[in-house]
Amino acid sequence: MNFICNFPFFSILLSLFSGTICSVLPAKAAKVVNRAVIIVIGLLSAILLLYLLSVGEPFVYWMGHFPAPWGNEIRAGVLEAGMAMFFCIIMYLSMAGGAHKLYDEVDESKHNLYYILVNLLLSSLLALVYTNDMFTAYVFVEINTISACGLIMIRQVGRTIEAAVRYMIMSLLGSGLLLFGLCIMYDLTGHLLMSNIKASVGPLVANVEYQIPLIVSIALMCVGLCIKSALFPFHAWLPDAYGYSTVSSAAILSSLVSKGYIFLLIKIIYRVIGFDIFNSTRIIDVLFVFGLMGMIFGSISAIRENDIRRMIAFSSVAQIGYIYMGFGMGTQTGMVASVYHILSHAATKSLLFIAAIGLTEVSGGSRKFVDLTGAGYRNKWAGVAFTVGSLSMVGVPLFSGFISKLLFAQAAVQVEGKMLASLIVLGISTVLNAIYFMKTVIRIYTSVKDSPYESITFGKMKIHAITLMFFILLNVILGVSSQPIVDLIVQGLAMFS
Amino acid sequence: MSKKKSSAAYQKTFAYRFFRWLRGEKDPYLGELEMKPQEEYHVSEDAILRREKEHDSILDKVYDSQHNKWLRLFHSLYEITSVLFCLFLIALLLVTVSYLPAVGTVTRPVNNEVAERYIENGLEETGAINIVAGMILDYRAFDTLGESHVLFVATITVLILLRLNKGQEDTNDRIFEPKNDAILQLVATFLVPIIIIFGIYIILNGHLGPGGGFSGGAVIGAGLVLYLNAFGFAKTERFFTEKTYKWVCFFSLSFYCLAKSYSFYTGANQLHSVIPKGTPGAILSSGLILPLNIAVGLVVACTIYAFYAMFRKGGF
């Protein structure tokens, strides 16, 4: 076996271990360890991706001395390695962009706790991406949930505590449903390993055995992960959790945590249940309808919002709706569009959160639109970055959002029966997106005479501005060189089955 | 060609006035209209107080479920819906269970190969008489590694929530602790050593019989909590402070991580592992299971004690 095949295992263990190390380090050293670990894991994933592209087929890796189905196993393909690399990039940029805010909002003595949580969160995301075992996935879902709660409430004001409690209740309900589904699946098949479950589910479906438990199990797993990734009717926890937590947490939660669960759902669809069996159930129609509703109601809530952070948070509901609409189409192209949208939304949403904090900072810390008037002139970098993010969200060519909308539209055209609904809702949602994002952009570029707030120079927020530049670059790369990325996704999804 | 006007006549035309206005030389309203600068808006303290009072009274009225019919309706609807939802979920799961294969049938589950190998080859392959210990700490050690980090991250989150920030020390209520109870102290002197020794036995016996790190650690943690209740923080702080917790957790988890990393690495790369299996049944046997049980036990015991100490007084 090639030495590079060890890299997924190294990444997971390194981030777990660095969490333990950070607990005995002072805050500054913990910060260095945290950043270094993210960079190292990003590099390892990049090398792994190149290796997998040259080899052309995925590999499984025993976690222990026993082969599957007796021992644990992880598995790496192109999509997994690419996703891990992408998660590391977004996580590094989010941490760097929100670092100065962390000093303002979090007590100094709790900084190293924050880095522990981020390291453990990264390890759980990597485990969700690489795992080939349903129970391992569940264990790391637990770590993910608890550390996400910690990330929300580390800024201790009333709203974040309330948001964390809400998040915890909803998220635990989701974990519970996932566990129920898992138990039923284990009872039917006798396996926890993804590929073995798939091998036993196939005959069960073919012989029409245990239909009802099978459907219930699939439905419970889907609903559980939908709650955790804030699909429309289950999004009540989202606005406060994203809107009031410290900005790094908000960026990480919106662009990574919910995406980790969605990626797990994709793995379940492809590697546990089987794409065709999943599409033959009625569950995809439910996902489709909820996705469409989310696209519209999320945007309407965002339009009514008077607080920039909460507005961006509500926009997430709409974007998660897009992803589930892609699942609901039940075709390969719809799935590719959804995976691309995971990348696009992760890059754009964290950019918007980090840029919004730059704007609120030059408006006396207020997030109300009245105070934000002219903020784009006072902090030029944040203004430009916010505009880029908004344009990308609305779907202007050159940025990543355009490509994902194009892919969704292309996928919709090929689906019989769901074409009209998806195209119309896609159109309405784009218009609604434009309303609230352009409203904000116009607002921050409306000049006001003798504003009470001072403008900020490049030197004062150097790291913040550089981070924003990298975010813009990432967005443009995703938007301009979309074809190779889409090819990668197609190749990765082909490796899944 | 029209005749050129004299300048006096030109000044009376509309064009002259229009262009003059356009050049900004004269404001047609200036001096013609009565203008007053707006008074600056001053808010008096009374007005603020009045507004706050009004705001509060409106809130009171809105959230007064005695008189707000809609709120009452909403609450009752909310309760009914949640009860219906729970009943639906219960019914759904019961119906599902009734369709599952019956207990004891050959095809329950469809495949038995996993459980079969655990039972038949577990002793030989892991060296542990307790199959469960062999399963969680050898076959599926990666899951258990994750599980011990769940405990770790839970303590970190409780630390974030409950540890007092700097400058909040005066809210610490340990000074109000009741005087120690003589009966409790006497009972604790007898019980605590027994409880802790029993916990150690459960941990060390984890690979030989029922027990293991999680259960033994919980017993030791309970013993520590009893000791704390009987003798107060002044006594426990002689041997258990936040620093102790930090380092014990650090060393146990690091040992777990490193030891298991070695085992995963050798396993996956098909290398020979130097860890001996030992004779099944001996106390020093079954490879890594005993040290891992000790590490897990330490983490669990510290976690339980730490939870209690933080809930009691926001620190150790």
Task: Describe the protein's architecture and organization.
- The complex is a heterodimer of chains A (497) and B (316).
- By secondary structure, chain A is mainly alpha-helical.
- Chain A contains 22 helices and two strands.
- In chain A, helix 15 runs antiparallel to helix 19.
- The model of chain A has no long low-confidence stretch (mean pLDDT 90).
- Chain B has 316 residues and is mainly α.
- Chain B has eleven helices and no strands.
- In chain B, helix 5 packs across helix 6, helix 7 packs antiparallel against helix 10 and helix 9 crosses helix 11.
- Chains A and B meet through helix 1, strand 1, helix 5, helix 6 and helix 7 of A and helix 4, helix 5, helix 7 and helix 10 of B.
Secondary-structure map:
The complex is a heterodimer of chains A (497) and B (316).
Chain A: H1 7-22, H2 27-55, E1 59-63, E2 72-76, H3 78-97, H4 99-105, H5 111-130, H6 134-153, H7 158-189, H8 194-206, H9 211-228, H10 238-244, H11 247-273, H12 275-280, H13 283-304, H14 308-329, H15 332-361, H16 369-372, H17 375-378, H18 380-394, H19 400-413, H20 419-444, H21 462-480, H22 482-496
Antiparallel strand pairs in A: 1-2
Chain B: H1 7-10, H2 14-22, H3 45-63, H4 69-99, H5 113-126, H6 131-139, H7 141-162, H8 182-204, H9 213-236, H10 242-268, H11 289-313
The helix count of chain A comes to 22
Radius of gyration of chain B: 38 Å
Largest sheet of chain A: 2 strands, antiparallel
Query: What is the subunit organization of this protein?
Result: heterodimer
SS-based structural class of chain A?
A: mainly alpha
* Amino-to-carboxy terminus distance of chain A: 22 Å
Instruction: Give the mean pLDDT of chain B.
Output: 83
Per DSSP, what share of the residues of chain B sits in E-state strands of 2 or more residues? under 5%
Structural classification of chain B = mainly alpha
Percentage of residues in helical conformation of chain A = over 70%
Question: How many DSSP-defined strands of chain B?
Answer: 0
The major beta sheet of chain B can be summarized as: none
Number of helices of chain B: 11
Q: Can you give the helix content of chain B as a percent range?
A: 55-70%
3D shape of chain A:
globular
Please state roughly what percent of the residues of chain A sit in beta strands, choosing from under 5%, 5-15%, 15-25%, 25-35%, 35-45% or over 45%: under 5%
Strand segment count of chain A:
2
